[in-house]
Design a protein that fits this description.
The chain is α/β, with parallel strands linked by helices. It has one domain: TIM Barrel (Alpha-Beta Barrel), CATH 3.20.20. It is about 35% helix and about 20% strand. Helix 7 runs parallel beside helix 9. The radius of gyration is 16 Å and the shape is globular. The N and C termini lie close together (about 10 Å). Bound molecules: D-xylitol-5-phosphate and zinc ion. The site of D-xylitol-5-phosphate (DX5) has 22 residues, from strand 2, strand 8 and helix 8.
Length: about 220
């Protein structure tokens, strides 16, 4: 299995102190920062877009921004997110008719490409061709749209199925993940761990990051 990567979701942070919050997470051991971009169409809420990401990348040099694009037209934002310093552009399979061309466009802008599936999308919807072209697969363990929701156990078998098909691929889990749910995620084979509430809401985020990482690595 690929190495463990912890990607705290800044959705649970203090947006008024965003760059400081990102620096705090990196100091605490996080490799990536998970940036939830919501457009009010694909999901009901609106969060942040390229102008905010641009400020973060300038304020936190070297940051790896794992951009989770919960947007209705993922083709539309590739250039803006690349210009803003995005490192990985993860779009929802449900939001595009041409994932291969989109992956190609993302790679042309020197970003890694991720493919996300919502709870009701089977893992078999990700074709071998798409998965091979992508750098990362994201299995949502809550319905996309907001932080702090309950982890959906029924999504875990999709992680196992994808890990069996793609032993070397980065597989991310996102939604309700924390110390209480990391065991099943790690056993199923996910190696990129997103956690918002569990990290930002903790008294000692550094300890939570270390625990999540060691559970995946063992
Ligand atoms: C949900 C987002 C998640 C969310 C995770 O739509 O994609 O990244 O912020 O937050 P927690 O860990 O609190 O469930
Ligand atoms: Zn997310």
């Amino acid at each position: 299995m690929p190495r463990a990567i912890i990607s705290p979701s800044v959705l649970a942070s203090d947006f008024g102190q965003l760059t400081a919050e990102c620096k705090r997470m990196i100091k605490g051991g996080a490799e990536w920062l998970h940036m939830d971009v919501m457009d009010g169409h694909f999901v009901p809420n609106i969060t942040m877009g390229a102008p905010v990401l641009s400020c973060v990348s300038k304020g936190v040099p070297g940051i790896f921004m794992d951009c989770h694009m919960m947007v209705a037209q993922p083709e539309k934002w590739v250039n803006d997110i690349a210009d803003a310093g995005g490192s990985l552009y993860c779009f929802h399979l449900e939001a595009t008719n041409d994932p291969l061309s989109l992956i190609d466009a993302i790679h042309k802008r020197n970003m890694k490409a991720g493919v996300a599936i919502s709870p009701d999308t089977p893992s078999t919807e990700i074709s071998d061709e798409v998965a091979t072209a992508a750098d990362m697969l994201l299995v949502m363990t809550v319905y996309p749209g907001r932080g702090g929701q309950k982890f959906l156990d029924r999504c875990v078998p999709k992680v196992s199925e994808l890990r069996a098909r793609f032993p070397d691929k980065d597989i991310e889990v996102d939604g309700g993940v924390g110390p209480k749910t990391i065991d099943v995620c790690a056993d199923a084979g996910s190696n990129v761990i997103v956690a918002g509430t569990a990290i930002f809401g903790a008294d000692n985020p550094e300890a939570v990051i270390a625990q999540l990482k060691s559970t995946v690595n063992t």
